[in-house]
C-alpha cells in the first residue's frame, strides 16, 4: 500500500481528526448519543464546525471513523495472502477473512474504552444499530470483492463475507464487554467448523 509522506500538514490533520473522535466519544459517554450535537463535539475538540465537517459527514460517522481504513487493510491482506485460486473452497475463504481480521484489528481497532462506549450506544439506539449494520454490510461487499479478485467463485466469496459478518454480530451480541469479543468470535468460528461434522450413518 502506498503511504503519502508524513508531512507536518498530514500530522496536523491526523491530530485534528483524533481530537474530534476523542471529544465525541467523551461526550457520548457522558450524555448519550442523541443529546450530543456536532457543535458540542467541535467545541470540546477546540475546532470549528467547518473543520468537523471536513472529516465527518455527521456525528454517526465519528463512531465508525476507522471503518474504511480497516476494510482497506483487510482487502489488501486477502489479495496478498490468498493461497492459489480459491475456487469453491468456502472453508479456506472464511479462514482467510478470519486471519485478515486478526492481522488488521490491532492496528485499527477502537480502544477498549471507546469500544465499551460504542457497545453501549448500540444497545441504546436502534438508529445507530441500523447504521452499524450498514457499515458491516458495506464491509462484507468489499471483502467479497477482494475474495473474487483472489480467485474465489462469486457465491463462495459472498457467502464467506456474510458468514464472517454473522460471526462478528454474534460475538458482539454475546460479549458482555469489549475484552470478551475475541473469545466470542473464536467460539462463533469454532461452531461453524462443526457444521461439516455430521456424517450420514
Name a few traits of the molecule.
201 residues, mainly alpha
Q: What can you tell me about this protein's structure?
A:
- The structure is a single chain.
- Helices cover 74% and strands 0% of the residues.
- The chain has 201 residues and is mainly α.
- Helix 1 (8-31) packs across helix 2 (38-45), helix 7 (112-124) crosses helix 8 and helix 9 (154-174) packs across helix 10.
- The radius of gyration is 19 Å and the shape is globular.
- The termini are far apart.
- The model has no long low-confidence stretch (mean pLDDT 89).
Question: How would you sum up this structure in a few lines?
Answer:
The chain has 201 residues and is mainly α. 74% of the residues lie in helices and 0% in strands.
Report the end-to-end length measured between terminal Cα atoms.
51 Å
Which secondary-structure class do the elements indicate? Answer: mainly alpha
Number of helices: 10
The average pLDDT is 89
Q: Any idea what the shape is?
A: globular
Strand content: under 5%
Helix content: over 70%
Largest sheet data: none
Low-pLDDT residue intervals, each spanning 5 or more residues? none
Amino acid at each position: 500500500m502506498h503511504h503519502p509522506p508524513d508531512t507536518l500538514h498530514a500530522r496536523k490533520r491526523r491530530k485534528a481528526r483524533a481530537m474530534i473522535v476523542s471529544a465525541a466519544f467523551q461526550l457520548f459517554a457522558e450524555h448519550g448519543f442523541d443529546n450530543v450535537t456536532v457543535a458540542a463535539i467541535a467545541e470540546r475538540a477546540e475546532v470549528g464546525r467547518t473543520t468537523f465537517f471536513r472529516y465527518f459527514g455527521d456525528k454517526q460517522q465519528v463512531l465508525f471513523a476507522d471503518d474504511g481504513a480497516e476494510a482497506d487493510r483487510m482487502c489488501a491482506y486477502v489479495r496478498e495472502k490468498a493461497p492459489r485460486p480459491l475456487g469453491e473452497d468456502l472453508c479456506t475463504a472464511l479462514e482467510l477473512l478470519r486471519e485478515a481480521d486478526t492481522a488488521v484489528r490491532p492496528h485499527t481497532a477502537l480502544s477498549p474504552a471507546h469500544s465499551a462506549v460504542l457497545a453501549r450506544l448500540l444497545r441504546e439506539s436502534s438508529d445507530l444499530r441500523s447504521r452499524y449494520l450498514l457499515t458491516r454490510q458495506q464491509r462484507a461487499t468489499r471483502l467479497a470483492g477482494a475474495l473474487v479478485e483472489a480467485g474465489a467463485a462469486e457465491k463462495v466469496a459472498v457467502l464467506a463475507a456474510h458468514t464472517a459478518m454473522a460471526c462478528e454480530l454474534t460475538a458482539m451480541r454475546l460479549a458482555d464487554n469489549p475484552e470478551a469479543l475475541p473469545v466470542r468470535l473464536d467460539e462463533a468460528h469454532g461452531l461453524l467448523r462443526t457444521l461439516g461434522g455430521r456424517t450420514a450413518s
